[in-house]
UniProtKB/TrEMBL annotation:
Transmembrane segments: none annotated. InterPro entries: GH (IPR017853), GH79_Enzymes (IPR052974), Glyco_hydro_b (IPR013780). It comes from Actinoallomurus iriomotensis. Residues 1-26 form the signal peptide. Keywords: Signal. This is Beta-glucuronidase C-terminal domain-containing protein. The keyword Amino-acid biosynthesis does not apply. The keyword Signal applies.
Length: 541
């Protein structure tokens, strides 16, 4: 297939409808199958995507790798490229690494030096603005004391806040989205809800965590089909306990909401690196891009975002990625992860509950943000062994701890951050076709500033889809996210790299800028080709 056929060609989205007609696969066919999609007129104040929607999550053990002196400038550039967002520093390491105010800096403990590095990174992104473009979540241990965490307790959390966070962020308190209390308490408390709620009250007391915002419950769930959770035929951890958790948590968090609002947080992974006796968890590109696993995301986000809303809170998917256990090689670190990640952010913002698909047609319930997690490949405290397969931003594994670099998943956050977040009029656009292969293309619409309308087309399949577009107007601007195989072997979903408008992030983390193609429309018709694993955003007035 030629380069011109790989381009996503599209149309001006004006005040009428957008209709996409025949679709063909890569194979030659005598009668091309038909597909269509209609973009209806704008609906004011419906389906809003908040600013600061995009975000990343990193383990405390990697602060030096991402925000040390040699890495900081590039990492700040990588954050700034996305516009606004939230950086979370936490994960399982927050329940394993003690805060020690007088200890030498290392990746074994949390020190004031780590907090100063985080503050310096945000200063590099935000400048002197009092309305931060990026905020930070700072995780601290909240778990029953054990041999691996003998330090855990309210006194430790108090020291973390009073001797670490408050001095480091003096004058920049607005940059703090929250102090996150514990990581995946459903695991650390062994599903003992009463013990968790008792500790939550103790840790959230202002005598412990001061006046700063707090974030809970940071729960996870086993990787299960949504139908089994819905029918309650499988053991779950805290999934069905969110109403009771938020009865306790919501008054505490609402009373101390900061610049980023009060929200409840959640974790989600569709797959796992290992899957003994649980085939549903097994990682593959096909499973990652399947409607089945996206439906499980929809189910969880819709259920928990609804509970948060009913308690006067927002909802953030504060830790997510392609596969638990630090990702899967050949699945999490290839172009398929970018296609998945872009679609995931739309589904998080506007979950379509599989048990009742019409219940959220106007996108009134959804997340206020998503954080893609980044970790070491095997274990904490061994960063030299390599990056987690699912990392959106790869750190330098050498002793130099130099500039981090953009992995495929980063480009999905870049596209969403620059073209979707902050928009209104969000909703899914149905794609119908005689050929089941056309269902691999997912479509979403958003309205940007100055009356712009944007259509996202995401091809999650392994072959191109060609469509005929019928629409008014004469010109469109088209930006595209495309798999890139430097070997020339033509890999698509399993390509090791991604480009946007043919460009990549520079070595210093800066983005050279989008370079959309201007496409003419002739007679209200034109051809749209979306290559395997490719995504396009089409902008018109």
């Amino acid at each position: 297939m030629t380069v011109s056929h790989r381009r996503c060609l599209a149309t001006l989205i004006a005040f009428g409808a957008l209709v996409i007609a025949p679709a063909t696969s890569a194979a030659a066919v005598s009668s091309p199958p038909r597909a269509s999609v209609t973009l209806d007129p704008a609906h004011e104040n419906q389906g809003r995507i908040p600013s600061h929607f995009v975000g990343f999550s990193v383990e405390w053990s990697l602060v030096e790798r991402y925000m040390g002196p040699a890495a900081r400038n590039a990492f700040a550039n990588l954050l700034g490229n996305l516009g606004t967002g939230v950086l979370r520093v936490g994960g399982s390491s927050q329940d394993l690494m003690p805060f020690e105010p007088d200890a030498p800096d290392s990746d074994q403990v949390i020190t004031p030096t780590d907090l100063s590095a985080i503050r310096s990174t945000l200063d590099a992104v935000n400048g002197r603005s009092r309305t931060p473009s990026w905020g930070v979540v700072l995780g601290t241990a909240m778990a029953p004391p054990s041999a691996s965490r003998p330090f855990a307790g309210p006194d430790h959390a108090r020291a973390f806040v009073r001797q670490g966070v408050e001095p480091a962020f003096a004058g920049a308190e607005r940059d703090i989205a929250g102090i996150e209390l514990g990581n995946e308490p459903d695991l650390s408390y062994h599903s003992d809800l009463d013990a968790y709620l008792s500790d939550l009250n103790a840790y959230a007391d202002p005598d412990v965590t001061g006046p700063l915002p707090v974030i809970v419950p940071n729960t996870s769930e086993d990787i299960l089909p949504w139908q089994d959770i819905d029918q309650r035929t499988v053991p779950t951890r805290f999934f069905w306990d969110w109403p009771r958790i938020l009865d306790t948590a919501a008054p505490l968090t609402r009373a101390r909401a900061g610049a980023f609002g009060a929200y409840a947080s959640d974790h989600f992974y569709p797959l796992a690196r290992t899957c003994p006796n649980k085939p549903y968890r097994c990682p593959s590109i096909g499973a990652l891009l399947s409607d089945e696993h996206m439906a499980s995301l929809d189910y969880q986000v819709y259920a928990h975002a609804g509970e948060a809303r009913d308690h006067g809170l927002g909802y953030r998917l504060e830790e997510t990625n392609t596969a638990a256990g630090r990702g899967a090689d050949g699945v999490s670190n290839v172009a398929a992860a970018a296609a998945y990640g872009l679609d995931l952010m739309f589904h998080a913002a506007c979950p379509q509950p599989p048990a009742d698909p019409a219940a959220n047609a106007t996108c009134g319930t959804g997340a206020v943000g998503v954080n893609f997690h980044n970790a070491e490949v095997r274990a904490f405290f061994a960063p030299e062994e390599g990056n987690g397969y699912y990392n959106a931003i790869d750190y330098d594994v050498t002793p130099a701890m130099g500039a981090p670099t953009a992995a495929p998943l980063y480009y999905a956050a870049l596209m969403f951050g620059r073209f979707a977040q902050g928009g209104t009029g969000l909703r899914p656009v149905p794609v119908t076709a005689d050929d089941p292969g056309a269902a691999q293309v997912k479509a979403w619409r958003v309205e940007g500033g100055s009356g712009e309308r944007r259509l996202f087309l995401i091809n999650k399949g392994d072959h191109p889809v060609t469509l005929t577009v019928s629409a008014p107007g004469s010109t469109a601007l088209v930006d595209r996210m495309t798999p890139y195989d430097p070997s020339g072997a033509g890999r698509t979903l399993d390509a090791p790299q991604v480009r946007v408008d043919g460009r990549q992030v520079a070595a210093d983390g800066s983005w050279p800028g989008f370079r959309p193609a201007a496409q003419r429309i002739h007679g209200h018709r034109m051809t749209v080709t979306v290559a395997a694993g490719e995504a396009c955003v089409i902008t018109g007035g």
